[in-house]
Amino acid sequence: MFSRGRRSDISGHGNTNVAELELRPGGMVVQKRDSDVNQNSTSKSTIKVNVKYGSSYHQIQISSHASFGELKKMLTEPTGLHVQDQKLIFKKKERNSKSYLDVARVKDGSKLVLLVDFESRERRILETLKIAKREKTSKSLAEIKVEVDKLAEKVATLEAAASEGGAIVELDIETLTENLMRTLITLDEIFGEGELKLQRREQVRRVQKHIETLDMLMAKAKSVSLKNEVNMARESKVHSGDHVRGRRGNSAAERNHKKQQPLKHFDSVVMTTKWETFD
Prior knowledge:
GO molecular function: adenyl-nucleotide exchange factor activity; protein-folding chaperone binding
Organism: Cajanus cajan (Pigeon pea)
Order of helices and strands: HEEHEEHEEEHHH
Structural class: alpha+beta
Radius of gyration: 55 Å
Keywords: Chaperone, Coiled coil
Oligomer: single chain
CATH architecture of the largest domain: Up-down Bundle
GO cellular component, one term: cytoplasm
Number of domains: 3
Number of helices: 6
Largest sheet: 5 strands, mixed
Number of strands: 7
Strand order of the largest sheet: 4-3-7-5-6
Protein name: BAG family molecular chaperone regulator 1
């Protein structure tokens, strides 16, 4: 199948590069795989570095092509330091997290020093607190929105009853107004930035609008109540006048009746100037 010269090349005679070729089943000649070479290259790419943190030493096995940031992540568990709080020193120079170990000539057995980056820790803590505050504000605004929605439904019910001429209880209006005022006070104690500030402003506007509606309903309810009181007073006055006129009519009738009655006859009394004398 192959020429004599080609066969000699494959069998290792007459060719110095025969170790790089191999014969596959089917007669295909390909480059020879060397598992030993791959294993050696893999072992060379993995290094062990010694990291000093305080009085402790940590031996980390890592790829030589890894970045200092990846090394920091591996140091998080044994040291308890957050990645952003770490500062790696190699050859008396702080190394950036994005730079690579092999570029910085970190080799197997190299020694590094790990320090606490206090400035970075302070920034991280402040940012964490800021995020927590935003989340709390967002949650509070969401709860207030739900409460305002419930109160808005009650205000709409009263407004509909008033437009249809129904009776409105002033106590219901006062209770709703007090609840809305308490919500407004809660909103005054909330501070937000950006989108949260806009959400807070929207809820304040809604609450104020509902309070104004309740004020108008209260004025209308008081007007109706005052009108009813005036009407009742008039009716009471009319009834009182009729009663007085009735009493006056009865008194006149009684006087006429007395005039028409005949005088009573009493026994006659005889007056005399004769005095009876006694011995």
